[in-house]
Specification:
D-Maltodextrin-Binding Protein, domain 2, 3 domains, five-stranded mixed sheet, three-stranded parallel sheet, 21 helices, 10% strand
């Protein structure tokens, strides 16, 4: 992250910490108390805050953890992304070295060694966790499963614990995602946590800035910054750049398009970008499908227009998006390509004038830009056989804090803000994208039953009839969620 891009947030965090600590020593107050303390900052403290570097501001946020000696315990994490949580040695890569140093700090502070147990895939990870729970072998302290496939199964299988029972984990701290804290509890039970510890790669848009200049469009970054980057604005722009480059009278992958996205997760993210969650929790904490309403119907109609009218969209299958979508974009034939922040590395060699922007808002009245992360960006859960919840809480919280303080700045600052992103404005846009990550109850717990994927399935079909689609899946969805809630009631 560029330093100017984070200064506005991190200096406030540091001001809160300095005020709460009285410049002498910190209490164990919550982050809410720290925020309230900003108003009492002295002029001297404010002056020092203005001079603080962002990394110093992050480092100053206390994790409020006690000192413990865990006697060299091997803290075991079951995951299909082992290098996210454990790096064996330094290799000169700034991000990997930061992960390695995180492990060293945890070992020095708590006498504990983090060990990642690699699973070759989703099914294997699920089977191993269930085997371990059934055997009662206390093999794993944490697991990081696939969101959709594993999300409900570990609950109905009574495999995982409630995070509310884990001491020393503070979900209000900045290293935890606040959306997941608010949207995926089940009757007050929090089975999953997510945050910067999982190294999220949210969905975003990549733009060829040559089109902005050549077609006389307004400064795209100013448009985003001013809250005017909306679905209608995007559609107006993408429609104007369509061209039959080879003159054969038909649009193929060799022609010029305004936008390209796949018929799967790229399409789904337009729902989140428009401020729609597929399932919402009512006042009793019960899930209510939220996909058959006026706004969703209107969004599906607009998506149908975007995909099927005026040839503005190269709409690809999930499995060939790299060849068609990415290939066309890097060749300069596509103005906007949808994807994820993790795709930046693969675009680094492209010669186009690349920029990064968030997905558009529904309209200018929306509260901000929203996005989500793909299901492969796992969530943390605790096996019911985890042997020591206090140790689990301390190590997890410390690891999350260290990731936010040191690994994420390395990832964001260097790998994204310098190594891949080519302008200061794109680094600023990454602030908006990461700050807008949301987690949807339906996405995590729907388990492919159809509710969350309403927009995808209807758009794929070439139609716009949300009512008929919902009628076809509603009984299956209701039965699925009833089973999930019965499992929670059973304990």
């Amino acid at each position: 992250m560029k330093k100017d891009g984070v200064r506005r947030i991190l200096c406030l965090l540091l001001a809160a910490v300095l005020a709460g600590c009285g410049m002498t020593g910190c209490s164990n107050g919550t982050s809410g108390e720290e925020t309230a303390a900003v108003q009492s900052v002295t002029p001297e403290a404010s002056a020092e805050t203005e001079e603080a570097e962002p990394e110093d501001a992050r480092a100053a946020v206390s994790d409020d953890l006690p000192e413990r000696d865990f006697d060299g315990y091997e803290f075991s994490i079951l995951t299909y992304s082992p290098t996210t949580y454990q790096v064996e040695e330094m290799n000169g890569d700034v991000v990997e070295d930061a992960k390695y140093e995180r492990g060293v700090k945890l070992a020095d502070r708590f006498n504990v060694n983090v060990v990642s147990v690699a699973s070759p895939g989703i099914a294997e990870l699920d089977a191993e966790l269930k085997r371990s729970v059934t055997a009662g072998d206390n093999a794993y302290d944490l697991a990081v499963p696939h969101q959709i496939t594993s999300g409900p199964g570990f609950i109905t299988g009574h495999c995982i614990r409630d995070w509310n029972d884990v001491p020393f984990v503070n979900p209000e701290k900045p290293w935890w995602n606040q959306s997941i804290n608010e949207t995926i509890s089940i009757k007050g039970t929090q089975f999953y946590m997510a945050g910067y510890i999982t190294m999220p790669t949210p969905f975003c848009m990549f733009i060829n800035k040559d089109y902005i200049r050549n077609y006389g469009f307004d400064d795209i970054y100013a448009t985003v910054r001013e809250g005017k980057w909306t679905f209608d604005r995007m559609t107006s722009m993408t429609r104007q750049v369509v061209a039959d480059l080879d003159g054969d009278g038909k649009m193929t992958e060799n022609d010029q398009y305004g936008i390209s996205f796949n018929n799967d997760n790229n399409t789904l993210n337009f729902m989140y970008a428009s401020g729609i969650q597929s399932v919402i929790l009512n006042e009793e904490g019960m899930p209510e499908p939220n996909v058959f309403n006026d706004k969703m119907v209107a969004l599906v109609e607009k998506m149908h227009d975007l995909v099927y009218n005026d040839n503005q969209t190269l709409f690809t299958d999930y499995n060939n998006q790299a060849v068609l979508g990415t290939g066309g974009f890097t060749a300069g034939r596509i103005m906007i390509k949808c994807g994820g922040v993790g795709d930046l590395g693969g675009l680094r060699e492209s010669e186009i004038d690349l920029g990064v922007i968030p997905y558009p808002m529904w309209d200018e009245e929306q509260d901000g830009y929203h996005t989500h992360v793909d299901a492969w960006n796992g969530m943390l859960c605790i096996p019911i056989t985890a042997p020591d919840l206090e140790r689990t809480g301390i190590v997890t919280e410390a690891m999350a804090a260290e990731t936010w303080k040191y690994v994420i700045p390395a990832y964001y600052d260097v790998a994204l803000g310098t190594k891949y992103v080519r302008d200061e404005e794109s680094a600023e846009m990454l602030d908006l994208i990461f700050d807008g990550v949301v987690y949807d109850f339906g996405y995590i717990f729907d388990n492919w039953k159809g509710c969350t994927w309403t927009i995808v399935r209807v758009v794929q079909s070439g139609g716009t009839d949300v009512a008929s689609y919902w009628k076809s899946v509603s009984k299956i969805v209701d039965k699925h969620y009833k089973k999930l809630y019965e499992a929670v009631d059973e304990g």
